[in-house]
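User: Show me an example of a complex going from sequences to structure tokens.

Assistant: Sure. Here are the input components:
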Amino acid sequence: MNAYYETRAGHRGGPSGAVTSEWLAQAEAALVNPPSSLPRSSPSNGSPLFSVIEEFNLWRSKPELAEAVAAIKALTAVIQRSEATTMMGLEKELHNASEALKAWDETSISLSAGCDLFMRYVTRTSALEYEDIRAGKARLIERGERFGEISLKARKTIAMLGQEFVRDGSTILTHGFSRVVLSILKLAAANKKHFSVICTEGRPDSTGVEMAKEMVAIGVPVTLIIDSAVAYTMQSVDMLLMGADGVVESGGIINMIGTYQAAMVARSMNKPVYVAAESYKFARMYPLDQKDMSPSPRHVDFHVSLPAPVQVECSARDYTPPQFLTLLFTDLGVLTPSAVSDELIQLYV
Amino acid sequence: MPGLDVRIELAAGDEGEGAMDSRRGPRFVIDPKVRQVGFVTPGSESENPNPNSSAVPMPVNAGANSSPNANADSPSPVFITPRLPDPPARTTPLPVPSPPPRKQPSVEIPLQGSYNPADSVLGNSPALSPASNGRYTGVPSSEGPDLSPSASRMSSGIEILSLREDHADSPSASRFSTGGEFSLFKQQQQQHQQAPPPVTRVYASSLPPQPPAQILPPTVDKEEPSKPLKERTTKAERRAKQEADREAKRAARESGGKVVEGEVGPSGGSGKSSKAQVQKKDPSSEKRSPAVEKAPEKEKKKEVPAPRMQFDDEHRVAKAKKRSLIEQTETKNRVELFRHLPQFVHGTQLPSLEAKFFHDDVMHPHPAVYQVGLQYLTGDISGGNARCVAMLLAFKKLIQDYSTPKEKTLVRDLTARVNSNVSFLTTCRPLSISMGNAIKFLKTRIANLQISLSESDAKSRLIFEIDRFIQYKIDFADKEITKHAVTKIKDGDVLLTYASSCVVEMIILCAFELGRKFRVVIVDSRPKLEGKGLLRRLLGRGISCTYTHINAVSYIMQEVTKVFLGASSILSNGTVYSRVGSAAVAMVANAFHVPVMVCCETYKFHERVQLDSICFNELGDPDALVKVPGKKDPSELEGWSQNSHLQLLNLTYDATPADYVSMIITELGMVPPTSVPVILREYRKEPIV
């Protein structure tokens, strides 16, 4: 059970969208024991560290902002506030900040992928060769802002691409809550397509209920099922549409627990499985199986008191291998799973 | 909650609909729409009122894309169209993912057209492939030809044409929506260009005969003397035509990859400007010396791969024998399916080779190469990396001792020298793919030497390059692979490896040094029993091992958690080409859901595609199958070669299909087998290292 999920859940469903004292307490708690990987040589290390996580949380408190975008915004702010006098110094500061962000929540894939991508995007310019720190800084900031904008646009792009796949009269099964999926369905509904949605409950934090509420809000007929009814309902489903926490190098996805089994059932019944994910969620990871990931445990409430010897499996996410996915809707276009690695290789290597 | 219950019941009651859905199911699975994303066909999209219809505009576009290359000798095409006076609004290109037109007014389309590939998050990647640039060009403008991106320009060109067809005999515009028809049209077009075509007139003359000439715009019509299509041409005319063709070809070649934009879709869309373009190009091409004219032909020749020696071709075998340095006799009773592969009686070559060691001849192999060749022959050096390094070191010595003969240039003579040495090595043992890649590397380096370099400079440069190749592509690569692979070894793992691969050995040793607690299963097979060496070395370090033969692989696989394999080569379809038996191990592992990781340096990757292990392989000594080590009494197969009903097959390699491989570990990271072509594409653009 970590701070990250608590805060995330708070943002999503909770009544408060603003920064609470809990927030700051968590941010401070994260600061009290900073990860050992951080070099402490630089004297000005303390303040930017604090500000980056605070900044990140500030951005994240905006409901429409994804974590990765919040991270990008926070890192841009780091550049803005930096007092470094050389470009090398600035780059180092940025690096430290991004490491701090990543260490703050090691389980979040999109956060670390967003940080990595930002570092790639910002520092891969000739800006670092600028003699003048001001000019270089301005350029980095501009790039950072631009990157943030692009990331913000990504969801709209995906919605445009994805809504084409929603057909009149179709039934769509979703699992968990995803803002990208929601934007696709919203756009499809706005285009006067008639379709119905089946939401899984999405235990343990009932994200599917959130999704169902949103569907009601846009006037789409929605059915809520428990997670174990996926196979039961699959025969009346036309397609499976899900978001992703992270897209890995194999082309598979890491997503809320239950995704794997839903995809498996869909595959066995020859229903297409579509995944909507922004390209900043592409991560250089390659899990071989379910155990080959850093665990991210969640508290699971069974509503009854369990005798002590009973062990509870409380992993919050699983890995869905590429052979169970049909297509990925990304802001780079509609990709087959194998094209993900293509993009990643071009980007990182 | 009660409300929810009701809905659930409803869902359960929907069985009838469900059944209907399942009937339609398959149509959804293979969704043709996917293709729309890569290449934009804005116009055709809007032409197609029903967005769900399966008439996908893609094929048209594909045809349009390929056509300029396909008939590069007729630069005229279709696309040079005089602009229609009044292009209907329907040609307005929309971004691909647009809602159906009927709903347009009421719907706010977010971001229409503002998306631009450069805008994407990854857009600034320097290595973005050109194909991805055309992905998504949706600038809504009223005039088709004014569209800037070439793809949409082309498609709108087609559209205008098809609209004109509408005028003529009013078939639906979707006439051109299938690739087949388009190509048919293309053929006709080529046919009709037999008439001497000044470029401007091409459009008119290239129209299919069915639509009568009246439909042509008057301006074009005036220029065109209406003549029968299959008119006989005079000699002069034919020559003129030939000249024109040649010129066009040259122009097309000069514009290179830009043919599509430059020639096919002139920005004005009018015939005149295109003529000007062609004319402009002429003088520049004229200036070039005849040498340039010859060059392309040379290139053409190069493109055809040299036919591999087929050893069932008796004529060529006899020829090769004459040239060969080694006297060798072919084995009897060769397996029918593998007759095209060389197979000689083992050991017969050695005496003659040894006798010739001190032979002095210009084209005689260098002593170092000779030594390496003998070592290959006896099997003293085996394993992809070892063979490759030994060969490169021998070539290094060759270069060190080399001095250019009088009246010869270093580049040519050294290449010839290397070639003769390589062919010597080939007769000792067929080259592995990795060696082939290394030789290719060395030869390009020799060819790229500047002529101005002095001999000693050139030599030291080459030696430096060879050292660098060994260092970067083999040594560092292995270390990098080890680093990546070790992250996948966890406490409690049981690793299985087959035969002996030096990279896998490094990985196991490295993981052991890092203190991981694991066990190793070494699977081995006759006749080489290479796993024994690995077993001995691992046991020497105190790693707990299990040794078994491949017969027991399905039994032992139950307890295995990961399989590590080495590879001789990986082909561009992801096929792993490795020691014979690897495929069986990988298949069994796959059946048991055990991940199979193949460790391979990228210099061993090859562009070729291979589906089986028959057409390219290496035959080992069949006698090795007969001899069983440690068996005292003579084998049942004693004197097997006398029995014409018996053939022994000792294959060296086999091909593992990509389906059985979970991951390929290279020095560039861990990639799925589907990414091999990506790596080849991204890293072979510039020469290796």
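The lines above are the inputs; the final block is the predicted structure for all two components together. Strands of chain A lie at 170-174, 195-200, 222-225, 239-242, 246-247, 253-256, 273-276, 317-320, 327-330, 333-335.
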